[in-house]
Amino acid sequence: MFKQTTLLQATAISLLALVLTGCALAERRSLPYDAWTLAFFAPDYMDVWIETADAIDINDNLFRHAGSGIPAMAYPRAFSKGVPTVFKGNPAGWSKDPGGKGKRVLGAELPRLVYVRWQSLVEPQTYEAYIEIPESARAIMRKGERAYCGADGKWITDYRKLLVVGLAPGGIAKVWLAGPCLHAIEVTRVQGTINPEGPYRGQTGGEYYFLSDESKAYIDKFGIPYGSW
């Protein structure tokens, strides 16, 4: 009887410890959802190739290659061929409610810093930027808001869990927070610097990723709208 009582007490203590540990972890966890997304885009015709985007969360965990490759861009259209007779895109300035292409940063707490190194193919030039995410932005990412989603016609509690970065010629990186059913909020704007090693950290002898024919034709005709970003 004594042994059974002792066993029951030990089990109860173990369960209590698990509950308290779970509560402590829940209190320390800053995300009200499973992951946030790091996404990128570029203005029309201002082709970009992202060599790497690394993220550091508020616990100083490093997530390498959280982004890379071709960002979202309205023009040129995907799979477009040749040069159009009329250019329908407009690269000057930023869109009111930008979106991007990227992936979820799984296992990360809310972001503290994002490092991005990219090739601005229309110049061409290689830039890098260290983007510090302020606490005010993380507060927005934690806050749920009632939103109407037109896709399924329902009201939901949505979160701005999309960290959207726009990359423009001249080394400009601008950041917004957006939600699937919430409008974007501007967070910060960073002036990047030229990476002295050049494309691919100097491993390709100065050779850049290719510039699309349509974007090249636009630049040849209209130039780059510096100062609009």
Overall domain count: 2
Helix fraction, binned, reads 10-25%
Rg over C-alpha atoms, rounded to the nearest angstrom: 23 Å
**DSSP helix count?**
3
Give the spatial strand order of the biggest sheet. Answer: 4-1-9-10-11
- Which regions are unreliable across 5 or more consecutive residues at pLDDT < 50? 1-28
Order of helices and strands: HEEEEEEHEEEEEEH
Count the beta strands.
12
Distance between the termini: 77 Å
Q: SS-based structural class?
A: alpha+beta
Beta content comes to: 35-45%
Q: Biggest sheet, in brief?
A: 5 strands, mixed
The mean pLDDT is 89
* Inertia-based shape: globular
Describe what you observe in this structure.
The protein has 229 residues and is of the alpha+beta class. It has two domains: 1-30; 31-222, no CATH class. It has helices at residues 2-28, 135-142, 213-222; strands spanning 36-41, 48-57, 62-69, 101-105, 111-120, 125-132, 144-149, 154-159, 162-168, 172-179, 182-191, 193-194. The strands form three sheets. It has a five-stranded mixed sheet, with helices on one face. Strands 3-2-5-6-12 form a five-stranded antiparallel sheet, with no helix packed on it. Strands 7-8 form a two-stranded antiparallel ribbon. A hairpin with a 4-residue loop joins strand 5 and strand 6 (125-132). Mean pLDDT is 89; it is low at 1-28.
Q: What's the short story on this structure?
A:
This protein has 229 residues and is an alpha+beta fold. It has two domains: 1-30; 31-222, no CATH class.
Name the features.
229 residues, alpha+beta, 2 domains, 5-stranded mixed β-sheet, 5-stranded antiparallel β-sheet, 3 helices, 12 strands, disordered N terminus
